[in-house]
Automatic annotation (TrEMBL):
Function: Decomposes hydrogen peroxide into water and oxygen; serves to protect cells from the toxic effects of hydrogen peroxide.
Cited Gene3D superfamilies: Catalase core domain
Biased composition (Basic and acidic residues): 1-15
Record key words, sorted: Heme, Hydrogen peroxide, Iron, Metal-binding, Oxidoreductase, Peroxidase
Domain Catalase core: 19-412
Signal peptide: none
The protein, known as: Catalase
Catalytic activity: 2 H2O2 = O2 + 2 H2O
Length: 526
């Protein structure tokens, strides 16, 4: 009798037996429990109620921006130098010091404006967020594919996103709302010039650049700082799409970028990017015609050359989209020793926003999830909150002492590893825009740097969307283009004059200068 029973127990459950979350084997996953096979259901249907109520909660709030994304695991390999120079001269961050040192990481690429299943062919910046699991804890580099941004003050971000997202009444994205905001925010003109060119539709995630966009700092052992910009260069080359190419892809596959990344990694064709930095001495640099803290500006390469510091390889797909790609939480505040913030006003605003939204989107204990948790010891006195499943205090800690300081026991502060960076800050508290705004000069340079097919695309895309806008918005955009570059302004004005009102899916301008836009995208770099 006893023997039979244990045999039944063993046979009941094997490696692939379905269970509920209490560990109970599920014997019937097809039928709810009813009074007779046609009768009403009973309330003690525990397995059904657990199953359906968990299903009801399967979604968490979407990211308010960058909802559509794809992710992958990989590693960063340091070159142990910055260009030909000793990197320790500029930063003491351990991740960079030793040649060949590998640090695991997770990347999430994304598009910005539309929801979680929107097409990956839309004209939109692409997110490029990297979480480095360093020996000193996590470092997040939360960037985009383009190197500049629409605005330079965090105060404007919610308005900008409202204008770019679908109309609150029709739930349809509206070019007039987009250009209304941009025409009223002339600092956006440089970014508009990029976004309406083929650079606004990268061919896929593997063949796009990445950039930290905002200005950061590096700090060395002596506590001295420099200003830093970060840029990722894809070893696969850069490839952007014309509007027509994007439409052709979208008609057949609106997940093409996710699929391209997943398939490449599955077949062992691991994508790689080189991480480059631009370095500027700390200070406000009155000799430049732009402010180094203005994220609507490029730092000219000839004055501030790109210097390689390491490479990233993506070699493993996520096991589960939701637990890794959806729940991963990046933030600009997540820096390690040797890396620091600059006073870039966007960076300062962003740094509050990310962890704030993640406490709402994922929950108060989002940092305990495996994808977000550092791959090193964590020991804090933080405790409680929804879904806390682990004590973050160290195993050797007196369990009674969940506070610091204490004479008795408990956790202690770490030693400082180098001289602290203590910048001097002096000034009146004001609400003012920066000087040296120069909103259109670099847009003109970017226009002149474009190849002919890129100019053609830029103008036809702009004309198509602007022709749907109020005349006052058109006039303002034309005057910004004229300020940027004579040809740019003239062709935009002429194109809009001749365009059918309300836009057209045809390219109203035809071929600028009679040159045909090539059907294949070409490699380019700016
Ligand atoms: C995502 C805020 C500017 C890149 C997000 C999220 C918020 C946000 C709330 C959602 C985060 C989440 O749910 O986990 C802001 C604010 C900005 C700003 C307030 C300006 C003040 C920028 C800029 C960049 C950028 C300039 C590019 C450098 C990203 C990326 C993500 C993101 C890549 C997606 C991260 C992921 O894959 O999870 N941003 N953002 N943002 N933002 Fe920003």
């Amino acid at each position: 009798m006893a023997k039979d029973h244990s045999k039944n127990e063993t046979n009941r459950e094997t490696e692939d037996t379905l269970t509920n979350r209490q560990g109970h084997p599920i014997t019937n996953n097809q039928n709810i429990r009813t009074v007779g096979n046609r009768g009403p259901a009973t309330l003690e249907n525990y397995d059904f109620i657990e199953k359906i109520s968990h299903f009801d909660r399967e979604r968490i709030p979407e990211r308010v921006v960058h909802a559509r994304g794809a992710g992958a695991h990989g590693y960063f390999e340091a070159y142990g130098a910055v260009g030909d120079e000793d990197i320790a001269k500029y930063t003491r961050a351990k991740i960079f010091q030793e040649k060949g040192k590998k640090t695991p990481l997770f990347v999430r690429f994304s598009s910005v404006i539309h929801g979680g299943h929107s097409p990956e062919t839309l004209r939109d910046p692409r997110g490029f967020a990297v979480k480095f699991y360093t020996e000193d804890g996590n470092w997040d580099l939360v960037g985009n594919n383009l190197k500049i941004f629409f605005i330079r003050d965090a105060m404007k971000f919610p308005d900008m996103i409202h204008a770019f997202k679908p109309d609150p009444v029709t739930n349809i994205q509206d070019a007039e709302r987009f250009f209304d905001f941009c025409a009223s925010s002339p600092e956006s003109f440089h970014m508009v010039t990029f976004i309406y060119s083929p650079w606004g539709i990268p061919a896929n995630y593997r063949m796009m650049q990445g950039s930290g966009v905002n200005t950061y700092k590096w700090v060395n052992k002596e506590g001295e700082a420099v200003l830093i910009k970060y840029h990722w260069e894809p070893k696969q080359g850069i490839r952007n799409l014309t509007q027509a190419e994007a439409e052709e892809i979208q008609a057949k596959n609106f997940n093409h970028a996710t699929q391209d990344l997943y398939d490449a990694i599955e077949k062992g064709d691991f994508p790689e990017w080189e991480l480059n930095v631009q370095i500027m001495s700390d200070g406000d640099h009155p000799e430049l015609d732009f402010d180094p803290l203005d994220d609507t500006k490029l730092w000219p390469n000839d004055q501030f050359p790109w210097m390689p510091v390491g490479k990233m390889v993506l070699n493993r797909n996520p096991q589960d989209y939701f637990t890794e790609v959806e729940q991963v939480a990046f933030g600009t505040g997540v820096l390690v020793d040797g890396l620091d913030f600059s006073d870039d006003k966007m960076l300062q605003g962003r740094t509050f926003s990310y962890s704030d939204t993640q406490r709402h989107r994922v929950g108060a204990n989002y940092l305990q999830l495996p994808i977000n948790s550092p791959k090193k010891r964590v020991a804090t006195n933080q405790t409680g909150g929804q879904m806390a499943y682990r004590l973050d205090r160290g195993p050797f800690q007196n369990p009674h002492i969940n506070y610091e300081p204490s004479i008795l026991d408990g956790l202690h502060e770490a030693e400082q590893t180098g001289k602290e960076y203590t910048p001097m800050i002096k000034g009146n508290l004001v609400r003012e825009s920066i000087d040296r705004q120069n909103n259109t000069k670099q847009a003109g340079e970017t226009y002149r740097n474009f190849e002919q097919w890129e100019k053609t695309e830029l103008l036809s895309n702009l004309i198509n969307d602007l022709s749907k806008c109020d005349q006052r918005i058109q006039d303002k955009m034309i005057s910004l283009a004229e300020e940027a570059d004579e040809e740019y302004g003239r062709l935009l004005r002429e194109g809009l004059k001749n365009a059918p009102k309300g836009g057209s899916s045809q390219h109203p301008l035809g071929d600028v200068d009679g040159e045909k836009a090539p059907q294949q995208a070409v490699e380019n770099s700016h």
